[in-house]
Amino acid sequence: MLEGFSDEIIRLPSGIKLHVRKSGSGPVVLLLHGYPQTHICWHKVAPLLVDAGYTVVLSDLRGYGDSDKPESDDEHFPYSKRAMAKDQADLMLVLGHKKFFVAGHDRGARVAHRLARDYPNIVAAVSFLDIVPTEHMYAQTERTFATSYYHWFFLIQPAPLPERLISSDPGYYLTTKLRSWGKGNDSAFESEAVSEYIRCFDAASIHATCEDYRAAATIDLQHDAHDQGTLLKMPVQALWGEKGLVGRLYDVIGVWQDYAEHVEGEAMPCGHFLPEEAPAQTAKALIKFFRNCA
Questions:
Q1: What's the rounded Cα separation, in Å, for the pair 244 and 240?
Q2: Which of 131, 226, 253, 283 is the most buried (most CB within 10 A)?
Q3: Among this protein's residues, is 202 annotated catalytic?
Q4: Could you tell me the residue range of the domain that residue 39 belongs to?
Q5: How far apart are CA 216 and CA 199, in angstroms?
């Protein structure tokens, strides 16, 4: 998978090591994955961006894949979106990219949101795939959301409850998530990709990813509250799956207009996993957006 992409572990000035893949030439695009996946979720989209004339950087978020999984603390700060976004800002500086485009899916979109908030001078434009902001989703919680996204409330329970339960059969848990959020479109997930997701979903990653969600329900909300009323000034794109929960529950464009000055977007013909369920349409939308922002 991702033939022609480099494969390396890069140590950041902080000491954190990230698993990074890159390829291509031209304007730079950073792609960030979600839960419970790795950078491999972009394996269908990334080559299309390279073919369209972009330099593509793929990174496993801290706590995921083959990137470091640092010890957390009582406030969950090491897995705050602020800490995770700083990793990506530091990575791009190490790679020599002073300004770049960002696209993030799921948790990666939440990291991208914080990256755009904390480092607006280096993010040229940002695309959020199948999310609305964390604080909005929590504030609007109702039965449909709590039922479909029950993991938002399960994973934040004190350790080691969710960790022990998931670890009893991590492969079953992970593949059930893909099947459920992908609306049963099993053919979208290549066996090699699923095997890689399962390989990386070990005890350390299960704990780290729970910490990601614990941070989202605590310290991330504090950081978001501090930024309330401050709009992103760079161009923002929102993409969502027309069969997924986000598009059904929220006026996606309308919500993002409360967080950014310039918002555009559209639904993709799929469930939650846009990069794998609708890769051609997702790549086309990203390319059009980034070209218009150049």
A1: 7
A2: 131
A3: no
A4: 6-293
A5: 25
Report H helices in the chain: 46-51, 81-94, 107-118, 134-139, 143-148, 151-154, 161-167, 170-181, 191-200, 203-216, 219-226, 245-249, 252-256, 274-277, 279-293
Does residue 105 have an active-site annotation?
Answer: no
Question: Which of 105, 207, 223, 272 does the annotation list as catalytic?
Answer: 272
Is 24 within the bounds of a domain?
yes
Which one is catalytic: 66, 87, 106, 130? 106
CATH of the domain at 199: 3.40.50.1820
Q: 164, exposed or middle or buried, with CB in 10 Å at 0-12, 13-18, 19+?
A: exposed
Please state the rounded mean pLDDT for residues 283-287: 99
pLDDT class of 184 with cuts at 50, 70, 90 = confident
Residues written for the chain = 294
The average pLDDT across 10-15 equals 99
pLDDT digits (tens, 9 = 90+) for 111-169: 999 999 999 999 999 999 999 999 999 999 999 999 999 999 999 999 999 999 999 99
- Is pLDDT above 80 for 67? yes
Residue 185: pLDDT band (50, 70, 90) is confident
Instruction: Write the single-letter amino acid at 124.
Output: A
d(CA 242, CA 269): 6
Question: Which pair of structure tokens corresponds to residue 287?
Answer: 């390319």
